[in-house]
Design goal:
Belongs to the ComB family. This is Probable 2-phosphosulfolactate phosphatase. Keywords: Hydrolase, Magnesium. By secondary structure, the chain is of the alpha/beta class. The protein is globular and about 45 Å long. The protein has a single domain, classed as Alpha-Beta Complex (putative 2-phosphosulfolactate phosphatase), CATH 3.90.1560.10. The two termini are 25 Å apart. The strands form three sheets. Strands 7-2-8-1-9 form a five-stranded parallel sheet, sandwiched between helices.
Length: 248
């Protein structure tokens, strides 16, 4: 029986333990939601990097038009678009995107040694769970909450619970203590329309930096995107093929 672990913040990740595992990184407000919307709006591949220095270095190597996004501790960066999914426009032609952030892209970097790495949020967690369930083999599943700059993040824990709930509805899994609590947190939050997420630290941070619509936008898009982003060869791309969701 496959086991589901939930790591409550990226600082607790032990990279050497991920090599045989399936992992999913969750940063509901903002990075993983932004990455999912980038893929939906014709930006592919998406390069998730540690910080602005790495983003600018990679940008200089690009030979074609691309989108550069980033923030640091919630503040925008000069020369970067803010990684706000509510403000993303659809690209008329396919182009790459480069994104750096305080939490989510660092979590992705820490998880890149996993056997398979998915990018998840409330907007697509139902599809990510189904794809993980379809995998062959008995690898452990590690759900990584990015957290909030060295601290626990309510919305990421609830995003992990979304995956746990869909997985357990589809089959038998062994849950860690954190996975059990995450599932209960998600079910409770879902029943209340995720209202408490608007009172999270990150939602208040986004309001303070003049992005008041970002959190509500993500909540409004709960399970609306049938996109499964995967980390392959240092880039994030859409998993090929259609996913039959558990709600179909």
């Amino acid at each position: 029986m496959r086991k589901i672990h939930v790591i409550t913040q990226k600082e607790a990740v032990r990279e050497e333990r991920l090599s045989g595992c399936t992992a999913a990184v969750i940063d509901v407000f903002l990075a993983t939601s932004t990455i999912i919307f980038l893929l939906e709006r014709n930006y592919e591949p998406v390069h998730a990097v540690l910080g602005s220095k790495q983003a600018l270095e990679l940008s200089q190597l690009q030979q074609s038009e691309h989108l550069l996004l980033g923030e640091s501790k919630g503040e925008g960066l000069d020369g970067f678009a803010y990684p706000d999914p509510a403000g993303l426009q659809h690209s008329q032609k396919r182009q790459a995107a480069i994104i750096c952030s305080t939490n989510g892209t660092i979590a992705i970097e820490k998880a890149k040694s996993s056997k398979k790495l998915y990018i998840s949020s409330l907007v697509n967690g139902h599809c990510v769970a189904e794809r993980i369930h379809q995998e062959q083999g008995g690898s452990s599943i590690v759900l990584i909450c990015s957290g909030n700059d060295d601290r626990f993040s309510m919305e990421d824990f609830i995003g992990a619970g979304q995956l746990v709930m869909h997985l357990t509805k589809s089959g038998d899994y062994e849950l860690s203590d954190a996975a059990k609590l995450a599932q209960k947190a998600y079910e409770s939050s879902l029943a209340q329309g995720f209202k408490e997420l608007l009172d999270s630290e990150t939602a208040h941070l986004l309001q303070r930096f003049n992005f008041p619509a970002a959190a509500q936008f993500v909540i409004n898009q709960h399970e609306q995107l049938d996109i499964v982003p995967v980390y392959e060869n240092g880039m994030i791309v859409k998993e090929p093929g259609q996913v039959k969701t558990m709600t179909d």
